[in-house]
Every structure is written in structure tokens, then in C-alpha cells.
Amino acid sequence: MQTTFPQLLLQHASQRPTATAMREKEYGIWQALSWADLAQLVEQLACGLYQAGLRQHDHMIVIGANRPRLYATMLAAQSIGAVPIALYQDAAALECTYPINNAEAKFAFAEDQEQVDKLLEIRADCPQLAHIYFDDPRGLRNYEETGLQSMDELLAEGQSYAEKSPGFFKAEVAKVKPDDVASMFFTSGTTGNPKGVVHTHDSLLNRARAGAEFDKLTTHEDVLAYLPPAWIGQNIFSYAQWLSCGYVVNCPEDATTVNIDLKEIGPTYYFAPPRVFEGMLTSVMIRMEDAGSLKRTMFNYFMEVAKKVGPKLMDGESVGLGDRILYAFGNALVYGPLRNNLGFSRVRVAYTAGEAIGPDLFSFYRSIGINLKQLYGSTETAVFVCLQPDNEARADTVGVPCKGVEIKVADNGEVLIKSPGLLKGYFKNPEATAEVLTPDGWYHTSDAGFLDAHGHLKIIDRVKDVGRVKGGAFDGAMFAPKYVENKLKFFPHIKEVVAYGDGREKVCVMINIDFSAVGNWAERRNLPYAGYTDLAQKSEVYQLVKECVEKVNADLSADKLLAGSQISRFLVLHKELDADDGELTRTNKVRRGFIADKYDVLIDALYGGKTEQYVETQVKFEDGRTGKVSATLRIDDAKTFAPVKAAA
């Protein structure tokens, strides 16, 4: 069944006009928007944009948080054959210049004054950007810029045009074909300029339907749309699957109220990267450590029961009567209230992806009755490549290939994929397209992995990042930096890690502590500190981190392939890695090469045997000002272990 996003909108509006399509929280109250109202809003916007000059194949920038009008603008552009391109709302102005110029975008939707200011700041460098429409008028009353107009004015013009040409909108929607370009997503640009990933209506909707069929999604689902619309994962869960299934998408009031809004909505279908689940668990453990002894004892006892029984119940395995009764008591006293407090009381399916999730973290959520699973995919594959069946969710795999997907592993260990959800190509970049797409339709993922005996895919690392240790005790051993980094990030006290070791005689890492978790840990031990930099260099914190590093080394020593990836030396950075400082991508992935250049003095110190190193770093504040953070960083050695030999 081939169709397009605007056609699906009209189907829902015709078949279920009064059903709720979206909710938006304003001033603490949830406002509902029906499918019929949404279709009318989209029609007015489409007519207004057409009258303003937006045409088929044109690109329109969309920048802001999840809002009904943002989604309606995307649908309106698609209704007349144009292509919406969402950009990250927290990106600096200069980061928007390349995508806007590369896409030759003449039109833009900006949510509020912050986004308007951003676009106006770079307008001289983007001369083709003729039309900017804003939704929230606060602070914009006295702006007099050519081509700057409110959404309300655009809607009024669109309504007038629609009344004069009543058949225009549906006729335009009918012209749009499934194999037409629907959206473009810019990659994070870790190694150069971002690339525009071009997707058709069919490639996105095909994967949306495959995921919906796999998890039996219906019109009754509730989803919370809180991740950046520029990220394809958010687009699939809250846009492609929303229009495919017809469920309700809920938009939080703002970023600071997401946890409250999550509890109020109680979504049935939920997605979050591992760091969100890590943050939730960290806050739970901090609260329990501050709780009274009776409550803490009860929590710890029933969590042991949950750890033993919960995953078996989730996987449909048989459990003894005594354990079932104990788990039922735990559910009434601990697990149920905990799920409710987290906002997961109604969750039927929860997914995580993007990075590896720690086994303990994964087990925790499944043990308290939350059906947390992993998936595998990317921007170029429209997300859904592998999914975990309900009774086969494991922390060390990313699931089985979903409908329509073929997987093979190249001789160098790279995972290759064939799928109906593959990108049409990179925009204006045939060379890059040819590098990832073979003539016979296989996509090069750049991920190293393998299919296990049960047909589940296991990902080790990026192919280009998998290296070898040269010299020293582990000469010639495989080095997988991402694998090492993720194992350390499984500890609640560690937020970010950057590992180095390819072509060197040992592995060294730079670490960011989790400020809230370690801060709470320090306060309970009456350990004073004056901010992140001071706390990070405390000898007690170094000992805490060292214990985590050595536990990882002990685990790695038991892995025949990766025993050589054990960490020999480490330091704790004086500042948190930040996307505004170029150290992370906007999707919070470490830019390892950039960090190596920026902190070359620290890498030299790690490998040069130094015990401390002074460093001074320029940082960028939220208001655009710059400053410097300096500190003398301590460097510690960690115990490594001889590889464990397999039993004869």
C-alpha cells in the first residue's frame, strides 16, 4: 500500500474527523486538536505558502520544538510537493548556514524570537532566504524585516486563497506521488560538512508501517514528542508512524516540563536514547539513598526479587508460585508506584537506540515491568532495520531484521543492509552516495558487527574506529573505542568517555563524571566542592572512577577478542563535553577526532607517563559569550588483567 503523508492526513480527517490527532500543553492545560481541525490548518498553510511562492521540489526550513503548527507546516509543504527540512533548535546560528545554503531554501518556519534572531543573524550569508514565518509573536512586535511574517497572517492569507479556490488543496495533494521526495535530514557532520539525506514518502512510510506491524501499534497509542524534530528518530515515531497509525502525539509545554508532562500523559509507546533512561535511573537511586531506612530496605529487597523474577516474566518464561507471589507484592508496593512516578504506568512498548545500553540498566527497566527493547537503524535507513521481539529482548544485541530487510556481513566485518527504507541519496553529493550505496542496492552502514546463532544482530563499533593496539603487553590486540566507552558509561557516575589506543601501546581514556550523581555522592560523604571543575579533581572522585575503570578492565579480560582494549591510564576532564564547544554532535555523539586535536596536550600527557597536566580551554556560554576554564588535571594508572583463558 503506497501513499503519501498528506493523503494519510486527509484519510484520517475523512474517516475520524473528531478523533484527537495532537495535544499541546499551554499554560499548564492540555489543548486537543482533532484530525479535521489539523487538516483545515494544513490546508490554510499550504494555500498561504503556495500564494507566497513555495513550489514543488522547493525546500523549506523548519526550526523549533515539537508543536502542532510545526508539524502542520511540514505537512503543508509536503501537500504542494515541497520538502521540509527540520534543523536542530539548539544549534548555533552559524551551524544553520550550511544546511540552508546547501538546500537553497527560500522559506523558513521559526518557532519564536530565539529562532527568528538566529535566522536574521545569518541572513546576509543566506541571501536566498526570502520568507521567514514565526509562530510565537512574543518579543517580535517591533521587528521590521523584509519577508518576516507571523503564522497568523499567513493563515489568514491561506484561508482567503482556499475560499477562492476550494478544490486547489486536494488537487495539489493528489499530485504528490509516493516516490516523490518527502523530507531531508542533515547528518551531524562529525567528519566535515553535514550531508542532506534524501527520503521519499514511500521510504519513510514503508519503515513506519514495518515498525507499527512489528509492535502491533493502533490508533489508541499515546506518544510524547519531546526529542528534536530534526532527528529522524523523532520524525519516525511522532510523524511517520503517527500519520501511518493515526495515534495521538502529545507536545510538552517546554523542555523543563517534560518529566511532569510524561507523568500526566502516561504514553503507551515511548522512545528515548540510553542517556535519558540512565538519567531517570540515577534520579531514582539518588532519591532512594536519601529515603528513610525502612523505605530503602523495602526497595532494595523487592528490587532483588525483581532482578530475579521480572525479566523472566517479561520473556514469558515459567516462574515458581512463591516468586510470583513475592513479585506481586513488590509490584503493589514498589514497582507499580515506581512506574507511575516515572510516567511509565501505561507503557506497552518502549525503545532505546543510538548507543549501547548497559545490561544492568536494561535489566532494571524490564525487571519492574517496562517492556524496554532495543532497535537498530540510522538516518539513511529510515530507522527501522532491526527490532527486538517482546520475548527476545537482550542487552547485548539490537534485534532481528524487520520486515523487508536483508543483512549481510562483509569480509572486513562491516554490516551491509538492503531495505525499502534506504535513502534516495545524499543531496547534491553523488560521490558520497556512491560510497554508501552499491549498484545492486546494498547500503554500507560503516558499523562492524555480526549475526549471532539466534539471528540477532550484534554491533561492535564503527568499522573505521576498530583498530589495533601496537606494542606493549597487548600488541596486536583489537581496540574498539566505542565499546570501551559504552561499558564505562554504564556506570551511573560516568556521563561521557573518549577512548584512544589505535596504533598505540595502550588504551587511555578521558572521562566526564555525571555532575548530579557524583555531586549527590559527594554530599552524602560531606565532601565539599565548588562546581564541576573542583569536584572532578577530588582524589575521592578519582578513586570512585578508578573502581569503575578497573571493573571494566576485569570484564574485558574475559573477552577473547577485546581483552587488549583494557584501559591503562585515565583522567577526569575539567569541563563537560558540549555540542556548543564542538566536542559533541547535536545528537550528543562524541567527536573523537576533534577532541583529540583540541586536547592534544592531555593525550600527550596520558601517553607520556605524566601524573598531572595543566590545561586551559575556551568555552561558549548559552548567551553566546566566551570564556576560559583552566585546571591542573590529575592522571591515574588503572590495573589491567591478564586475558582469561578459555577452559580446555
Average pLDDT, rounded to a whole number, is 93
Q: What would CATH call the class of one domain? A: Alpha Beta
Euclidean distance between termini CA atoms: 56 Å
Question: From the alpha-carbon coordinates, what is the Rg to the nearest angstrom?
Answer: 26 Å
- Which CATH architecture of one domain would you pick? 3-Layer(aba) Sandwich
Approximate strand percentage: 15-25%
Topology:
Layout: H1 5-15, E1 20-26, E2 29-34, H2 35-52, E3 59-63, H3 68-79, E4 83-87, H4 93-102, E5 107-110, H5 113-121, E6 131-134, E7 148-150, H6 151-164, H7 168-175, E8 181-186, E9 196-200, H8 201-214, E10 222-224, H9 232-245, E11 248-251, H10 258-265, E12 269-271, H11 274-289, H12 293-314, H13 321-342, E13 349-352, H14 359-367, E14 372-376, E15 386-387, E16 400-401, E17 406-409, E18 414-418, E19 425-426, H15 430-436, E20 443-451, E21 457-462, E22 467-468, E23 478-479, H16 481-489, E24 494-500, E25 507-513, H17 515-524, H18 532-536, H19 539-557, E26 567-572, H20 592-598, H21 600-607, E27 612-620, E28 626-637
Parallel strand pairs: 1-11, 3-4, 3-5, 5-6, 6-7, 10-11, 12-13, 13-14, 25-26
Antiparallel strand pairs: 1-2, 8-9, 9-19, 14-15, 15-16, 17-18, 18-20, 20-21, 22-23, 24-25, 26-28, 27-28
